[in-house]
Amino acid sequence: MPTHNSHLAAVRCAQDRTPRISSNDWRCCCGALLGIHRDGLMHVSFARGHEYLFSYPATATCRRCGTMSQTKGPAR
Known about the structure:
This protein is mainly β. Helices cover 13% and strands 34% of the residues. It has a domain at 23-71. The protein contains 1 helix and 6 strands; from the N terminus they run αββββββ. It is globular, with a radius of gyration of 17 Å. Residues 6-15 have low confidence and may be disordered.
């Protein structure tokens, strides 16, 4: 039987999925996160736990819209 506070878990879960936009984010023109600039490298992670660090320049194809994007390094 649902309790008075049972909806809080669903609200908390929805809040955790909100995108946290940072100046270190590398995003596609559709808004999808492609990678994060960290310590002079590009950090890319995938849903199954695969993580990669790339040097610049980096090129990626967006999994959401198929657009190819390139970054030459973090914005200064």
